[in-house]
Write a structure and sequence with these properties.
This protein is mostly beta strands and 146 residues long. It is 13% helix and 40% strand.
Length: 146
């Protein structure tokens, strides 16, 4: 079961990060085992001033951060009654960047749970642009309740 899409205000209510570190613009799907989120990449983002001045490329570490933030939207129960307040990144495995992400791209992040043990969630995450894989990783988070 998934919940309706979340806009930026609903995301800000769930994730305590703020500009310039909040990387998720919309959550399209959210459920116990799958999350789909969007990151709109804009030339106005501060990291483009230095990465790289002559060829704007989104840093891989920030793509990974967006992937981890999407995983923070996993629910702990099927009915969503115990949605987590915070997700803490505790591990990353097999992270690969496969293409550049540049201003004007829309990063679609899809995460699927591969392992769950109490508050620990491990997910296989893929970030894509126009259907082409931009990055992938296995991300581990600890999800904390209010």
């Amino acid at each position: 079961m998934s919940v309706p899409a979340r806009d930026i205000e609903a995301i800000r209510a769930r994730i305590p990060l703020r500009y310039p570190y909040l990387m998720i613009d919309r959550v399209l799907e959210e459920g116990p085992d799958r999350v789909v989120a969007l990151k709109n990449v804009s030339i106005n983002e501060p990291f483009f001033q230095g990465h790289f001045p002559l060829e704007a490329v989104m840093p891989g570490t920030l793509i990974l951060e967006a992937m981890a933030q999407a995983c923070a939207f996993f629910q702990l129960t099927d009915n969503g009654e115990h949605a987590p307040r915070m997700g803490y990144l505790v591990g990353v495995d097999k992270f690969r960047v496969r293409r550049k992400v540049v201003p004007g791209d829309q990063l679609r992040i899809e995460a699927r749970v591969s392992r769950r043990k109490r508050e620990l969630v491990q997910a296989d995450v893929e970030a894509s642009v126009d259907g082409e894989t931009a990055a992938s990783a296995t991300v581990s988070l600890v999800l904390k309740l209010d």
